[in-house]
Design goal:
It is built from nine helices and eleven strands. The chain is of the alpha/beta class. It folds into two domains: about 120 residues, Udp-n-acetylmuramoylalanyl-d-glutamate--2,6- Diaminopimelate Ligase, Chain: A, domain 1; about 120 residues, NIF3 (NGG1p interacting factor 3)-like (Udp-n-acetylmuramoylalanyl-d-glutamate--2,6- Diaminopimelate Ligase, Chain: A, domain 1). The mean pLDDT is about 95.
């Protein structure tokens, strides 16, 4: 039989290994419990990337009492008093009507050295000698390292393609055989400049941008834009496995790809 815990107990568990307090001044997401339940025991957690109505509907159908996501509902000014209108109201209403707790973790999940999106991507790539990389508001949230033996950009694509979904863009502007790589998941195209400055052979992120194309071309660096969604499924899945192993709680990954 699976264990059951309260939302406050699960909050304490997540905070025991995710640096939520450490990012409170730099992350514009409200990390932690965003919508609480009525105090009922939580027997199953659904893990997903986005706090979208479709995620909540699939979580409810799966019998989940909590949804853990990377992209929550509350951002920036919405942390202050906000208007419950439109899609935002419908999402909140669904959670309340179904007594589902919503838990969001943004940058602390990107940055975590073991369960983070970037850490798992470096594992998939097979990188060694891992170091923090990619400064965001004074904190390095990405990773960089070296390959035990050189790999081509095509080999790297195969290693990180989620569910065999192709990347959004592959830019082979550097050396054929890559010895070093840096990773910052999601929308971090600008960190390609950091990779160029640090002499990295391959930069992996989620989204590209028009403004960075010629920087990479002239900087002679390879870049993979794996997709914002596809590069950020890894952290929630790693935390999910940690929860089931440590807490004995039931869990399920809700896969809703955006193609972006």
């Amino acid at each position: 039989m699976c264990n059951a815990l309260t939302s406050s107990e699960l909050d304490a568990f997540f905070r025991s290994f995710l640096d939520i307090e450490g990012f409170s001044s730099v992350d514009n997401s409200v990390n932690g419990i965003q919508v609480d339940n009525d105090g009922s025991p939580i027997r199953k957690i659904a893990f997903g990337v986005d706090a979208a109505l479709e995620t909540f509907e699939q979580a409810s159908a799966a019998g989940a009492d909590m949804v853990f996501v990377h992209h929550g509902l509350l951002w920036g000014s919405q942390a202050e008093p906000f208007r419950l209108t439109g899609n935002f109201r419908r999402r909140i209403k669904f959670l309340l009507d179904h007594n589902i707790c919503l838990y969001g973790v943004h940058l602390p999940l990107d940055q975590h050295p073991k369960f983070g999106n970037n850490a798992v991507l470096t594992q998939l790539l097979g990188l060694e000698n891992i170091e923090p990389f990619g400064v965001y508001h004074g904190k390095k949230i990405g990773c960089k390292g070296t390959f035990p033996k050189p790999v081509t950009i095509d080999d790297a694509v195969k290693k990180i393609s989620f569910a065999n979904r192709p990347p959004l863009g592959v830019f082979p502007f550097g050396r054929k055989d890559c010895v070093t790589a840096a990773v910052v998941s999601g929308g971090a195209a600008d960190n390609a400049r950091d990779a160029i400055n640090e002499g990295v052979d391959l930069f992996v992120t989620g989204e590209s941008s028009h403004s960075i194309y010629h920087e990479c071309l002239e900087g002679k660096i390879n870049m993979i834009a794996g997709g914002h969604y596809s590069t950020e499924v890894w952290g929630v899945q790693a935390v999910m496995r940690h929860c089931t192993a440590e807490l004995g709680i039931s869990a399920e990954f809700i896969d809703i790809p955006t193609g972006l």
